[in-house]
# Entry
Amino acid sequence: MPASTSSSVERFDDKARNAFEHAGKTTVYRGELLRHPVYTRVLHWAVALFFFLALFTGFGIYLPWLFRWFTPFFGGGPLSRVMHPYFGVGFVFCFGLQALNWLKPMIWTAADSRWMRNIKGVVSGEEKMDPPDTGFFNAGQKVQFWEIVGGCVVYLITGVVLWAGARTFGRIPVAVSYVLHDISALIMLGGIFIHIYLSTIGEPGTFQSMIRGAVSEAWAWTFHPAWYKQVTGRDPQQDCEEARRKMNSSTKPPKQS
Ligand code: HEM
# Structure
């Protein structure tokens, strides 16, 4: 990206982050680090809300015989059909802002290619900590982010074709758009299931980063050691061992005399 474009994106993001920080609040306690500011959290939950609204109205259109029971929540089948593209536009718009907000930390690096080669060790839980060069986002998160960016482009193009219909675009483009639109939705849905699992049960302590905006230092040195080192200036491995030593000595029963 040209330097002038990237600096105007940064200026736009900084302005938005400052404006939202005045409207909301992030408390970071001792032993914690700031992970996601108010702007990021508001965008994330707006994206999630529009995603699920578009998904549920979309299900009623995609497989009415199976998901007809969703449609009364949206005022019936015809109204679900009318509302679905608006929810879709809301999703793509909010995710577009989030994509600008996360453009820098989502850039692929050599460390991400190494993380991918070692994915078996990370996913199987054989390795207790992520590789030491794992930064703010790991490679798995970046893959999902870029998949959603690609998905948004597909939704936007195919969605406009489906919205305007065969009278404007012809029958074949509409038929192709149906297939691409639905494949994109199914891929994204599969990714979101994994995302929700990892952000809650799979990696405990992650969920609070999108609620309160802060994470524990232990969470940071476990899942994002290079980011921990970058923000604290301390060695994640050493701090982890130190914390473990302290915990063991405080849980040891006192010596009997
Ligand atoms: C209710 C469901 C959801 C929960 C509980 C959830 C939770 C989270 C959390 C805790 C993070 C921060 C991860 C970190 O700091 O490392 C995050 C990040 C993110 N979320 Fe969600 N999220 C949900 C739904 C969604 C939806 C519907 C989308 C988009 C369609 C989405 C897209 C993202 C992306 C792209 C990131 C950054 C990369 C990543 O962590 O994978 N999320 N989410």
The chain has 13 helices and two strands.
